[in-house]
Amino acid sequence: MKKIISLISSLVLAAGMTSALAVNAADSTYKPTLYFKADEGKGVEILKYGAVYVNKKVAGDDASVPVSVYFKDDQKIAGQVFVKWISPDKSLVLENLTGPFEKTGGCPFKISGISSDADLGGTLKTFKELNVMAVSYTETDAKKPLQLTGETSDAYPLACFEAKFEQGAKGGSYDINFYDEGAYVTSVVPRYVNDLQKLEEVYPAEYSEGLLVNASDRLLGDVNNDGHIDSVDASLTLSIYAKLSSSKDPEASAEELAAADVDGNRKVDSVDASSILGYYVYLSSNKDSTVKTLNEYVKS
């Protein structure tokens, strides 16, 4: 059972709830979400469905991916936002945690005294031994929800960090997930005022999607690593899909599986095979220097 609001927090919140918000307390549907956004770079591509593909031969064995954490609250009633995220495989190290100012020049919420990353202080935490990071925002005035800086809650990120591969890290799929365990679970406290009994924490880590990072030693789509993206790669991808669909061993390495998931939807399927084959046909009829990459082709 999820940890409920502490007694002290409840008293503080209850004491300040004297103003009115345009929120119907009878409406218990409150589902803010969290998400990650990664940046492209040398050897780093953002795939169609938001996953990251790292060609370690190009990006380097210790490739680093810049990532930002965003909070989407369409009802704009969050009073406290506490977010933790983890990379379970410590070969992908979470490091260089900063606030949003350095990267975007702004903050998602108007909180007194915060005008730079340095002002965030204890708001940002890194737990190196667990490969976990955390950020929190709390409105000092309990009478109202967090006040937005932009038009939406995700106009600015909550925090920014880097996901860096250790030297010698193997190719394959790595996840960065919002943390959903322990006493300090990811949570959001809304500021309802019409009925204090409706004041409940919500836990967006339960339904918010993490970030998939696929890493390989070859080009995206070059499943057999021969330096070309062609019908052979499409055939290999289709074979992998057929075996996976029959619950059989795909007989493919982690490097091959990462390269075959060309749209980044967390699975190797017939769509990936079709995309690779379509790209091969496209390459065969376009020999000029402005030819698209496979990723550009898939996203177009």
From TrEMBL:
GO biological process: any one? polysaccharide catabolic process
> What Pfam families does the entry give?
Dockerin_1 (PF00404)
Alphabetically list the UniProt keywords: Signal
User: What molecular function terms (GO) are annotated for this protein?
Assistant: hydrolase activity, hydrolyzing O-glycosyl compounds
Specify the protein name: Dockerin domain-containing protein
The segment(s) forming the Dockerin domain are 216-289
List residues traversing the bilayer: none
Organism equals: Ruminococcus flavefaciens 007c
User: For this UniProt entry, which residues form the secretion signal?
Assistant: 1-25
